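Homework help board

Subject: predicted structure for assignment chain

Our instructor gave us this sequence and asked us to write out the predicted structure in token form, then describe one feature. I got the tokens but I'm not sure how to describe them. Can anyone check?
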Amino acid sequence: MEGILKKTARKYCSIAVLLVLLLNLFAGIPAAAAIELPDGVTASSLTMQDGESIIYGFKKANVTTDANWQVVENPARNEVIVEGTDRFWTNSGTMTMYFNVAQAGQYEISLGAAGQFESAPCSASVNGTEAAVPAIAKGTANQPNWSSAFGTFELEAGVNQITFTANNGTVRLSAIKLTPSDGEEISPSPAVSPEVLRMDVRTDDLGSTAGYGDYTLGTGVTVSQPQEGVSNTGWSGNTGMNNSQGQKRTIFTNNTAENAEWVQFNPNKTATPLKTGNYNVYFWYVQNSANPMNLSAEVSASGQKYQIEKSILTEAGGGSAKWVKVGTFAFNGNEDEYLKLISQGAKARVGDVKFEKTEDAAWTPTPAPSPLRMDVRSDDRTEENGDAFILSKGVTASENWSGNSGLSNSEGRPRTIYTTYIDQWVQFNPNQSGTVLAPGNYDVYLWYVYASDTSLSLSAEISANGQKYELSSGLLQGMPSGSYSQWVKIGTFSFDGSEEEYVKLTSSAKARVADIKFQKTDAPIWVPSPTPTPSPTPTPSPSPVIEPDFDISTAFKYFDSWTSNHDSVKSNQDVGSIGTSTTGGAYGAKHFWMQQSGGEPVWMSADITLPVSGLYRFYFHLPFANENGDTNGTITLSGKNGEQHEIPFSFASGAKLQWNDLGVFDLDEITTVTVTSATDGKQIRIDAVAFEPALPVASNLKITGNNRPEATLTASYRYVDINGFEEKDSAYKWYVKTKESEPWKQVAEGTTTDKAGSSYTLKAGEMFAKFEIIPKSANSDITMAQGSLTSAVFAVTSGEAAPVVKEVAVDGVAYHQSNLTGTYVYEDLNNDAEGQSRYQWITSTDSAASFDTWTVLESGTCTADMPVVYNVPISLPEGSYIRFAVTPVSAEGTPNTGKTVYSAPVGPFKKVDIKPEAKNLTVGGQTVAAEGLTGLAINGKAEAGYTYTNLLGSQEDTAATQIKWYRGDSQSGPWTEIASGREYTPSDTDGGKFIKFSVTPAAKDGKIGEAAESEAFLVRWRLAFHDEFEYEAQDGNAASFTEKWVSDSRMTVLGTPATPCMRIPENVSVSDGTFKITTRNETNPKYGTGHQWTTGSVWTKERMGPYGYYESSMKYAKAGGLNESFWWMTQDPYNPTKDYDKFMELDFCEGHYPYELKSNLHYNPSPDKGQMASITHYPFGNPGTETLGDNFNKISGYIKPNDTRYGWEDAENSNTYQIFFNDEQIRSTKSIPTVPDDGVIYMSIAVYPGWAGNFIPSEANGSVLEYEYVRYYEELGVSANGTNSYEMDIIAFNSAVKEAEELLQNAVIGTETGMYPATAKDALQAALQIAKKVTNHADKGVAANELNKAIQSFENSEIGDKTALAAVVTTAKRVLASLSAGEGYGQCPETYYNTLKTTLERAEKILKDGANQTLLDRQAAALQKAMDEAGNNKNTSGSVVSNNVIIEVNAIPSNGLTVERGVKNGALDVPETIQGAKKLTIYGSSTSAVLYIPSETTATAGEYAYTISKPALSGHNAVDAYSFGNIPFGGLVKLTISKTSGDKVGILNAGNVSEISVKLTEDSFAAAEAQYTSGDFTAVYEGSNSVSIYTNKLGSYAVYNDTVPTPTPTGNSGNNNNSGWTPGVIVPPAKGSPKPEVKFTDITGHWAENEIRELAKDGVINGKSETEYAPEDSMSRAEFAALIRRALGLNASLYRGGFGDVASNAWYANEIQAIADANIMNGDADGSFRPNDSISREEMAKVLVNAYKIKTGTSEIGSAELSYTDNAEIAVWAAEYVSQAGELGLIKGMDDGSFAPKSSMTRAQGAAVIYRLVK
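My token output:
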């Protein structure tokens, strides 16, 4: 506040000022005040001093506003200028603020807002004087932002007012500032002394130009003086550093000596001394990343002095400029009270301080016990001093550390060291430092020395109290909270004071070390890493254990394509570029990349589901970073309660394939991960994220047990704690309930572990169980010992169910003496284990015959995990088929035997002379098999390869097998035999010729197979160099090795960090057929001491190339960070290329374990410039299961001269350099513009951290790279000087043309076997014409390849043998005809039926059009599968509801089978022996027949048709007739037929009916058998309503009578049916009319007989005819509408055309109108009524309830609880109606306890419910 009370250049004297002050002091409020305060409003005295200005913050209590103003009370500190005030804003409206001024006078007034806000212009009125307030621009966060002064105003002493009116945008108000006008000496009154006093250390704005004495100290401020003759003492003005107000008014000291520098602030020596009371005291931390705070404090207040340690203030300051609270102190206003800031031995900066009035109690930070701090070194030299620094007492270190330049320890002293090497260590032994730690727990801290070129690249090992703890470098890297030097807490450990205790820091990259400290604590042991381990081995770079239940998130790993509106991933991809890349994620998946463009970052986010909410360690995986710069961005995790965790990241250039540990966060189960780019325009690549639970977790929780009532359930889980503590007393509870809607009831609790689990046995009625577990660990820190509750639920969804088998299949061929293998899959709904299931091998000559007619070849017991093998006997009849049948049997449960399932048939079997076969002929050895380059080589040993097969299992007689080699001028011959044997080496004579071989296989049983021939191969190469490594060499100096190779003995220094490595002969060797390079972590003194690693590199003595084909087979060393290479270059280390433009390097493989291959091409476009074309190929191997270090892989490269007709960069030369992986081309590109020199082949390893992946020393040490061979082939016709005769291309081209012409000439076009489709011929003809247009020799190689592809396609199109498919089609037609689609018994589900139908149609088309053998065989298999699936999935429950269903008698369920009324025919599949008693009920039109067959009854097996009819009988009236086709039985069967009184039953034969002559007096098998003698036998027992026929030959029987009625129409006058007969409905007769006689013959004995008769008598219902009611037929909606209308006696209404599907002349039109008018039935939403649709039972319920309301006039109807077994199937809209109808007794359920809501209502049911409604 310097300058406010200056005694010079003022118009008024100080005496006058003092007088005014005294008057105000005693008067309280100035008498001259003209402003009256509104009720409840106080004048603001929340002032703070700012130089010569006074600031008033806005407070709600000091203002009045209209309704448009918004107030933010107690906002964040950075949203207001004066702490403790409020913030106001509006778009329109008026606000008045009242404030106290100590002294009247003229003041300039400015309006202020916090720096992060802007404000629109507005108008103001100050004590009635109008003014315009300018806008406030948005400023710097945490800084005040003022408008320019909007006028000078006369203010009264006391209360003043200022009014603001917003009318032009958003106005934001925080404070006003009053500045005395020039020439005035004005001071605030002590009576309104500011609540916040801010003091600047200096008041000038000279910035850095002010040395000591040049700047002006603020009033009440004093500083320490410079020491004479001592540099860097005293205080100077700062460069560019700001105070809290954004002004360059700070000072600094560079004094690093032990003497203290200080700055003292005396608040009561300012013009506005503090009032008596408590104040929070703050100083502004002037933050700079190069130096920490380095300040302690001393406070004198109310006669007391307080010392506040530097460590406390440093911790409070953190890493950003801010107000740092010193404490809360009681001040009494004496001038000797002060705040002193002290710097000792370190650089420090000071800005402003403030004293803030508070009601809080006085508080002083309690200093922690003095820590033990250990410097790594004790000297203060600042130069780069290598090894010359002095280690402190108790500190030891490895040799490769140097002193740092310009970086400081926690005290600001230059006592730090650094290393650029990995695995360098520093060890601090606290109890050898001269100060011994007292036994107890200590927090251990490491001072993080921040620098832009390093991160915290250190791992830690702590030995304390006999335990060892390891913390990985990745774990420590995540600890610093920002980019500044700071204390980082390693953990809390228990020390016992022994000398062996230590903290050891080890480098994992370039690293810096300064000091550490040990702070005594009462906190328990805490280690932020896995469990203590007994080994002191340094931990490698972080790699989380990704458990299956915490699998890598689907957010980034599994999406194969990118869309902005994806269900799971969102982005703002319109801002920049976002896409996918195939070059590799963590597990071989595609990954995403983003690239920012413009000013706005790009981002993508995804929601991830975690197992439970809680603390998780978060990992981010990077596929690879930018090659030429760091990758920067931010990851945001959404935490609990809306908290957002922002994690900045920066990945070094070339970093890749690394898991990065980003810290621990408290997360919900659904967590959003957002990745945001920086604005540097660089790409970010995003691969995967992973989460590890930081608290104990019970993962993979599940309940297992049998899925049946009263089962014993077992709960199991997997305990996970990344802190490494064992599980202890995890708490569990069991709950049960009987219904899903009930609450859970606890039944058990206790403690357990994942090893013990927990079990519970369900009690009767308990159908649901829940298990809850809270995982707990043995961690003594209770905050980390208990995880979140996890639960699992088990529901009993099934009663006892039989097991099932699926996927029953046979593998094998239809030859006698071959082996067939049967397999299947076992399943059980109750989770019962498989017992001894039963199998059968069965045979039949008819592949579609009923299964029970097949003959059993072999049977036994089996289990699904053991395939069943059957050897087909030679005695099996030719043409037979074989199936494998399995009957599943469970080890427990009832029933324990399931349905037998049959495989597809294999056959027809043929009696053939089985001979050995040679298949898959190919050539191997020293040949070229690369894509597009295939051929043999002169001097290259070709090896015949083939697969020997023998269906009889006889092994090959290799000595007797004949292999012959042939030579021809073209690929189609003619051929000349040239050699025999398994190998052939082409000579010069073979160059440009074609070679093939044949194999005639021989078996050891003496049988000789047919000769098989390979394709033809062109001899187009010369093997010019090779090494197969078929010798031994101990090292690179061995004579056997040096014949062809030279070993390197030079150093490389590569990677990040730079890693010196020697390549030496001792690390290469040849053994066991491979060349090996071993990498070792060693310093070999033979080659000096400047390296920590050795490996190997070799090159050929012989020079070769440049053009040709280079190949090797490699198996990577299993270590990241190694560049494992196979390459060629024009120079070796001792023979550089002389001409720059002759240089070329071809890197066929720069391999990086585990999955990467890089290919490169280097050349020199100018003498001083090199050019590289590099591509990363990723991933190879089989990520997740097989790496490139597990097996050998062929890697090769091809280089050819440029086509001189074109420029070297033209498209025609874009294939001159090619790379292959296992013969598949993975790169094709241009080479170089010149002809390079010849060169040498290299095999090498370079230790190359970063570029070659994550380098883990423990993996690299001892790792071995292996090569199986190295080969170089010259291309015939190509010279080393770049000329190319294209001789081989011409030969290949001419040969292909010749073969194509021959094929076209000889091919027969057609659809029969051996012919070719016309389309195939046309395609080959077109390809030939294209090829013949090629005239330039350089293009003929490509043309030959394309024509050969066309030839192969043509040959593959040859029509195959249709015999097998034709046979399957014939069978399939028969099977399809026997099936019908539906859900009834014997029907096939529609899906399987349609599949069979469409598969058959396709097969018939293929037979007609013809196809190659592969397609014919594939279609036959598909059709057979469709047939079997249709057969195996035929429904075996329910009733028969359609015609033509074949009923397998032995498959009839034990409770019988029903053929529903309306079915007219079908068939019975009768076996030789009936297994178990069988009952079959068949309904005729008005009668029924029940067939009963006793168990073990024999029969003549076959398929017998049955029919139900009403035939014309001579002289009789037929009621029903049942015909069974005269089935012969070996014993008696019983057929019971219902009838009405007066009807008869007789034997039916050709329209004639005869009585059964043998009569029984008792209805029993015993009575019938007593009459039976021999031959065909039929006897009858005649009852009043049925007859029972006993017979051994089930034939045809008729129910008949002798009355032939003539139906008469009703002729009722109200009938709308013009035919005179209303179907099911009649007009009731007039009252008093006699009731008609009911003549229905088909209701006798029916459950609804009484209801039907009564309603018929009343004229409510009618039958289908005079004698037929058809009770089981369904009732239509129109019929039911008419019945309801008649039953209620409603008047019919003339139809008004309200429904689109009801015609006005329809018999039911007026009935529907009446029922609709009564609101009993309504149509559908589309305006239809569906009059002819059957009415469902749930629709019936609604109509009945509505009708009941009309009939009774009531609307209050109770509801019954729904207890049907199929409640879930009742529609939501119908549930209430069904309940109410049940309560009224109008409807009942079905006999089986169901309601069948979707079933059609029968005519009997309709009569019953109408009867209940009206009676």
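Reply (TA_rk): Your tokens look well-formed. For the description, you could write something like this. Residues 1287-1306 form the longest helix (20 residues). That's the kind of observation they're looking for.
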